[in-house]
Amino acid sequence: MLASDSIGKEFVVTCFGESHGRCVGVVVDGCPAGLPISERDIQEEVDKRIPLKPQIVSARREKDVVEVLSGIFDGFTTGAPICTLVWNKEAVSGEYDQIRDVPRPGHADYPARIKYGGFNDYRGGGRFSGRITVAFVMAGAIAKKLLGLFGVEVLAYAVEIGKVKVEKKLTIEEIRRNTYKSPVRCPDLGRAKAMEEEILKAKSEGDSVGGVVECVALKVPVGVGEPIFDSLDADIAKMLFDVPAVKGVEFGAGFKVAQLRGSENNDVYAISGGDIVTLTNNAGGILGGMSSGMPIVVRAAIKPTSSISKEQKSVDLSEMEETLIRVRGRHDPCIVPKAVPVVESAVAVVLAEHMLRAGVIPKVLREKG
Amino acid sequence: MLASDSIGKEFVVTCFGESHGRCVGVVVDGCPAGLPISERDIQEEVDKRIPLKPQIVSARREKDVVEVLSGIFDGFTTGAPICTLVWNKEAVSGEYDQIRDVPRPGHADYPARIKYGGFNDYRGGGRFSGRITVAFVMAGAIAKKLLGLFGVEVLAYAVEIGKVKVEKKLTIEEIRRNTYKSPVRCPDLGRAKAMEEEILKAKSEGDSVGGVVECVALKVPVGVGEPIFDSLDADIAKMLFDVPAVKGVEFGAGFKVAQLRGSENNDVYAISGGDIVTLTNNAGGILGGMSSGMPIVVRAAIKPTSSISKEQKSVDLSEMEETLIRVRGRHDPCIVPKAVPVVESAVAVVLAEHMLRAGVIPKVLREKG
Amino acid sequence: MLASDSIGKEFVVTCFGESHGRCVGVVVDGCPAGLPISERDIQEEVDKRIPLKPQIVSARREKDVVEVLSGIFDGFTTGAPICTLVWNKEAVSGEYDQIRDVPRPGHADYPARIKYGGFNDYRGGGRFSGRITVAFVMAGAIAKKLLGLFGVEVLAYAVEIGKVKVEKKLTIEEIRRNTYKSPVRCPDLGRAKAMEEEILKAKSEGDSVGGVVECVALKVPVGVGEPIFDSLDADIAKMLFDVPAVKGVEFGAGFKVAQLRGSENNDVYAISGGDIVTLTNNAGGILGGMSSGMPIVVRAAIKPTSSISKEQKSVDLSEMEETLIRVRGRHDPCIVPKAVPVVESAVAVVLAEHMLRAGVIPKVLREKG
Amino acid sequence: MLASDSIGKEFVVTCFGESHGRCVGVVVDGCPAGLPISERDIQEEVDKRIPLKPQIVSARREKDVVEVLSGIFDGFTTGAPICTLVWNKEAVSGEYDQIRDVPRPGHADYPARIKYGGFNDYRGGGRFSGRITVAFVMAGAIAKKLLGLFGVEVLAYAVEIGKVKVEKKLTIEEIRRNTYKSPVRCPDLGRAKAMEEEILKAKSEGDSVGGVVECVALKVPVGVGEPIFDSLDADIAKMLFDVPAVKGVEFGAGFKVAQLRGSENNDVYAISGGDIVTLTNNAGGILGGMSSGMPIVVRAAIKPTSSISKEQKSVDLSEMEETLIRVRGRHDPCIVPKAVPVVESAVAVVLAEHMLRAGVIPKVLREKG
Asked: Which uninterrupted H or E stretch holds C236?
């Protein structure tokens, strides 16, 4: 089966649209009736993609304007599927003719051409463009609104760009306050400055850099997540790997667990203020695929932008001969800043799904007054 | 929805059974008719879990004997669902009474108790025991047989245990030859020896160690994997995070991409022997969620065994007071060796799924002579 | 889980929109790349809903204009999801205020209000309006185009309206030629005339009539349909019962089988022109949930339009007292004519799904020249 | 995709096994923890298949003994998947050699052979035998137990066999009291007698008869069922058409709606004892795909047993020549009596699914004391 543009079982997100087609849109199905939400709420999340400094992150010249086509009536969700989209206003497709035959290294061009027999919309990467993540953000806006009703907050931010890492322990307050003050979306404003330089340096060399986005989810109740195969970590990881450019995902201590002893890694239980807590959180808030009640902590490794202006080797597929390619057009020297709200949305969508599945979010939110 | 014991859309794996219940079993649905396979083929894969050195990996005293209950007739799959199981022979459940009220740190005990209202079968971890991965291996045996018909080989092996890492580049020949010669399932036999010592040292201290399992899949054709939401990396990651104890998953250069420049990370194309190849494989064989034709390379971080004999802090849930726990019973000081065939099976199952989805594996394998 | 606006596993149809919202739309996911199709092809199918005689079937004053938002590029499907919609131009919602509290007999008003806590968009029936079947027809247009490539033809037509039934055996030629010549979509033009009268008589009395739509699918290859739970008849029936107003579905001899002997009902095999055929087709082309190679024949019973101008008893839900209701607005005295293309589309969608599942339709239709 | 042995999204039923293989089994996934149930509860439902009069319905000589392999612990469901099966004790497979090449009219033999390339287990019809409906009944036993906790009762019974029909209005009391007193499972004991004669007459002529099974579900709350595509009637119909031999399904007035006026067919609302009711129930308890609060009433047409001892025409597939076949072995002259508990189970499974989906059945049934 080729169909693969839907995710989720209870909070089902179906996306459509291409980079240079008419629009990028999403249908969210399964959101209970009675959630107060407006076009503006969704717009605000989409606006988080607008760069603070255009020299660091490229921007389409015209702002994406969210339109809701269905599922919201009189300021509330109705229980019917919510379709929302942004129109593509300024597609300059001529630029992309080159990639029809010469695949860009690091891009989906080559496998896509083989898979779809050459029929895929190659303009701007088509369905494989980072632009489609607007759909993730629109779905995430709805998910976040729903989670908010139940006290759950999801926060993503950059912790690593190029060689620069956040070393200190970030407080939630800092994350809330600083993330969107920083053009690179890093709440450690000192390191954020160094990250900017890292990006500008790569850019000046016609190159790009990668990074790591971390995401925490607060106040997820205990027992959310469905083992064996729909465990919470598995579903978050699946959604994150569906975000273009993600090459690694880890929870809590992550890859460091390899070197830890059980006695170091196990998070022991204690009672604090009447609640059961763990004194550490190496598990990243997930045990046996279920939330433990501690903050969920996940990190995603983002590769450096594949589109670079440096000349690279490639192959002309129609001639079957080696050639060189220089990717033209406006490209981000680092996609981490744009990836931050996408990662946040991805995690929020999975949490909405699983809080519905666990029955934490009921099927009817309220009765209309 | 609580149902979550099935995975896959075309090669659907449904598992059942508990650590100390009657059996651990699996139903594989969607395998095309005409695949030659026997109970013995599945037994061979399950036997890979038998430790070479019992001081390193614990073993149930009686060997698991695979029984096929349906779906195979006259030496071939019939197209009907294949149910296969192993009976649990030696469950000593008394040992587990302690954990009914005092959750073991690092285990699923606490969230499971909350989630299932106390009705979950807690004996031996019940549904959350590593034992259920026998089901993964039985499903993997069928998947590997199917993939083999189409030239695809999947190989997993340990590359890191505790502080010991494989540093050299392993050849496929070495991996094939050495993995199962080593009690820790590491094809670098020198490092394997050091890994054994790492495990024995932890064990002697009543402690445990973690590690990293790597898996390569060879000769997967270009274009396997279904973007956006069922991308090949996302589905492999989901299945791997469903393996108990996995805390991180990365492909190719993985978390290192954060620090790479685009010009370093991009795998440039070339022609080799008439085929399109990339000169590096930082992508781990996956671009845009589809196979690129290069070997798929994935790594999973395995946490140190949660069950350790050292005393740990915990909480008595019925009394709501802090207490101490010392986990009794026979436990592996390191589960990496047992995780190796499980990771291999998990990857094989996802590849079978996606090669069916892409149409690389046809619906009818052959006509009966 | 509340999400329920998608159907299919390989040819996945997700619909959205409301009667008086902004639009009615559909996303078709899983259609292979390389299918030649245009907005106009879809428009033609939607146009089949336009009545020949407005006194028999009501029409919106402005024609529905199909817009394709994604998934078609340069005249071919790309393999990406196809989103297509019609905008709602003339919603006069004031008319519907009455039904907010007083449910119309025979409509979904009452259970919908309870289910969605009063938040459902009640205007024009909202999500429960027959108007949403435009989405079925748009999806059906794509399905029919795809089926056509593989020689399969799907034809629906009215066989019963009120007390008037088609008694004679219709030929395929007659069906192709006459169905859309008749305002009631009945290829027996004599009986069609009597059906018109049946409708006009009911209308003149402020009442409505029901009917039966039959659908045949020709040249479906043997073995399409997936037992046990996704059998071809089960999936066709599910899709047909999802069409508003359908109250019964039967295949071949249908309910008459109750009174037949096995020796009468069994369709015996013979060889005709080198092919295996059955001499009768009481099975309606389906055996054991799989196509037999004979024409698939299915009938759906359509209830009389619930909206009638005659006064009816109902209950005022806000006051919890009995009251009377007279449904206002423009309503079809019989929805059978409009249901004909919807039934045809529903059957076509299920056949596209199952021909993909059986591998009869390949994953790549062709290579781009 | 070939996988098709699972149904449901919340209450997921996966079945496996063949008529002459080792067993027939089922995995039920998604049943909440805390449901009191035992092997004996399931056995009781399976025992309903045992005929009262063996001259009317054939029986395997050894009784089917239900074994529960997983998911039930200490008398309650645990939240883990429940696997339960019956072993096949007396398979005499030699009898079936004849059908390898000569398909029996009315059976799945011919399409199955084509679909599975000849690899399907043809013995006793294999996967297409009525025997697999034991799996439906075991799943139904769990569903009925779960529904019972929430006051819902499901009752099936024969209303038509051959030319004999129940004409009078049956009371619920009669249905409860008489159905299993009658060898044909018809609560109208007078008509039941005539039905027996109908069966014996057909049998004496080496022939078989069909019939109609009706099923009512009482006290289903308003608003159960998920429009558009998972409507309650659609899902019940899908499950019923998955029962071998069903050729038609209708709700309430069913096919009679074609001839009714809207004013006759609409069920008008009234208040009775403080509840909203309808004065008639032509809708069969379902409006817009959701339960209306009235009894759900559905009927399934069951074809006459395909296996008859009368000689019939067929084709030898290996020789591609016409031939004659006389089906040997022990066969039911009428399968309606055995179909009654299967239909009841099928409806119960769908109701369990949908009451979970609607949130009427919560995720945690109770806390363990």
From this structure: helix C232-241
Instruction: Look up residue B143 and give its two tokens.
Output: 């998947």
Angle at CA C223, nearest 5°, toward C218 and C226? 110
Question: How far from the centroid of its chain's Cα atoms is residue D328's Cα?
Answer: 25
Tokens of C264: 């009468």
**Are B29 and D6 in contact (CB < 8 Å)?**
yes
Yes or no, beta carbons of A234 and B233 under 8 Å apart: no
Q: Residue B331 CB: number of other CB atoms within 10 A? A: 17
Three-state DSSP class for B127?
helix
Provide φ and ψ at B49, rounded to 5°.
Answer: -80, -15
Cβ-based neighbours of A336, under 8 Å, separated by 6 or more: A158, A161, A184, A185, A210, A211, A212, A213, A302
Using CB atoms, which residue from C228, C242, C314 is nearest to D4? C228
- For chain D, list the contacting chains (3+ Cβ pairs, <8 Å): A, B, C
- Two tokens at A177? 């306050």
Say if the Cβ atoms of D69 and B78 lie within 8 Å. no
Cα distances from A237 to residues A1, A30, B238, B304, D258, in angstroms, run 22, 21, 6, 21, 52
**Do D208 and C261 make contact, defined as CB atoms within 8 angstroms?**
yes
Identify residue B315 by its one-letter amino acid code. Answer: V
Using DSSP's 3-state secondary structure scheme, residue B133 falls into: helix
Token pair listed for D95: 């009898």
CB within 8 Å: B12 and D3: yes
What ipTM, to 2 d.p.? Answer: 0.97
Average model confidence (pLDDT) for chain B? Answer: 94
Q: What is the pLDDT of residues D35-93, one digit of tens each?
A: 999 999 999 999 999 888 887 877 666 789 999 999 999 999 999 999 999 999 865 65
- At residue C93, the pLDDT reads 57
Nearest alpha-carbon partner for C345 in C84, C21, C171? C84
D312 DSSP β-pair partners: D325
Interface test with B, best of D4, D15, D27 (most B CBs within 10 A): D27
Closest CA of chain A from C62, distance in Å: 19
- Structural domains for chain C: 6-357 (3.60.150.10)
Whole-angstrom distance, CA of residue A38 vs CA of residue A68: 8
- pLDDT the model gives residue B97: 67
Q: What element of type H or E holds D136?
A: helix D133-149
Angle of helix B133-149 versus helix B336-357 axis, rounded to 10: 50
**Any bridge partners for residue C290, and if so which?**
C287
- For residue range A44-74, list pLDDT tens digits in order: 999 999 888 887 877 666 789 999 999 999 9
- Nearest one of B191, B131, B182, B130 to B161, comparing CA atoms: B191
Contact C322, D140 (CB under 8 A): no
What are B66-94's pLDDT values in tens digits?
Answer: 999 999 999 999 999 999 999 998 656 56
Give the C-alpha separation, A128 to D144, whole Å: 47
Nearest CA to C211 out of C197, C195, C194 is that of C195
For residue D354, give Cα distances in angstroms to A105, B1, C83, C347, D236.
49, 11, 29, 25, 10
Angle between helices C133-149 and C336-357 (to 10 degrees): 50
